[in-house]
């Protein structure tokens, strides 16, 4: 999906709230992500920032870390700074509606990336991965990796994020077609590697005979892998992920992770800024609808060599 282009560093980074650089004739685009310590969200912010700067804007990145109060404060700051547009990865499908409305009421167009809010007509665009499609292809690959019988467990993301339920439901739709596969447990690990590790430890104690782990994202999957390695069970228990993070790509190459589902974060983060630029200049985004889905790509041992870094800005 990605062409050869500029590769982004995806090391963890601390991002200070809305630091404004030199003035730009085109104005400021404020970018608010979840947590740049996660390479997925780091890339999301950096791609949006670089694209905005290439289009002549000043751009700044801040992080709410899933807290709607912090998100609201950052929106206030973006309003005070007279942003030309806001690119937002919302903290909560319901809880972020008020923050988006506040920006819109202040005359600032908002473009959502990665996650949706449960209200249409406020944001100018909601650009997200096709999580249902990605979950379906991931689940099919997971079945092929694990075999079609045995007990398995699921690691679930943040319940406040619609993506978590969409992926889980997509897994369920596929896996229930295999009656000899039994879900022994399902634990919330909030997209977090440390929580994935802890929840995997407790599920292993309760269900030592599981054959697989299906995870809502790569960070939780990588935490599970660490727990399985520690318990000496990684060879018997197959793990699948979702996101296409660089660490997941490395784990596939090492034979520790069976697959990941690449979310085209670089693509929709860039596109959100392009649509914001269109709207600022013409009053239209250039897209045919507010909600826009971007298909995911399956990465396995068979094609992993194409993805030295999965989070790449396409030219």
From TrEMBL:
Keywords: Signal. Coiled coil: none annotated. The keyword Cell membrane does not apply. Its main location: other. InterPro entries: Peripla_BP_I, SBP_2_dom. Residues 29-284 form the Periplasmic binding protein domain. It comes from the Bacteria. Pfam families: Peripla_BP_4. Residues 1-25 form the signal peptide. SUPFAM superfamilies: Periplasmic binding protein-like I. It is found in: Cell envelope. GO terms for cellular component: cell envelope. GO terms for molecular function: carbohydrate binding. The keyword Signal applies. Belongs to the bacterial solute-binding protein 2 family. This is D-ribose ABC transporter substrate-binding protein. It comes from Labrys okinawensis.
